[in-house]
């Protein structure tokens, strides 16, 4: 059973293609922590506030922000939020006020 119309995936065995397909559809896949930190930034929270909410240091928040920014191709955290929302890497339903 083939799961994709991608010719690259079509050449693979079906079971392997099923496992790899999400990565091909979203090559800038963010981790849960990167998503949480980016979504909270989109809501206006600072690094220190996000750290307190997630029970991690503000330096760890900065690391997650930087990783997310690099994955989506943002020049700064604001740009990363915008690109994430526009490309779907940051689902809009995660961003609430």
Short synopsis of the structure:
The chain has 97 residues and is an all-alpha fold. It contains six helices and no strands.
Description:
- The structure is a single chain.
- This protein is an all-alpha fold and 97 residues long.
- The chain folds into two domains: 1-28, no CATH class; 32-94, Winged helix-like DNA-binding domain superfamily/Winged helix DNA-binding domain (Arc Repressor Mutant, subunit A, Orthogonal Bundle), CATH 1.10.10.10.
- Helices cover 63% and strands 0% of the residues.
- It is built from six helices and no strands.
- Helix 4 packs across helix 5 (58-72).
> What is the strand content?
under 5%
Proportion in helices = 55-70%
Strand segment tally = 0
Can you tell me the CATH superfamily of the largest domain? Winged helix-like DNA-binding domain superfamily/Winged helix DNA-binding domain
Rg measurement, Å: 16 Å
**Mean pLDDT over the full residue set:** 81
* Element-by-element helix/strand order: HHHHHH
Structural class: mainly alpha
The major beta sheet can be summarized as: none
Runs in which pLDDT lies below 50 for 5 or more consecutive residues are 1-7
Distance from first to last alpha carbon:
43 Å
Shape: globular
Count of alpha/pi helices: 6
The number of domains: 2
CATH architecture of the largest domain: Orthogonal Bundle
For the record, the CATH class of the largest domain is Mainly Alpha
What CATH calls the topology of the largest domain is Arc Repressor Mutant, subunit A
Described by its quaternary structure, the protein is: single chain
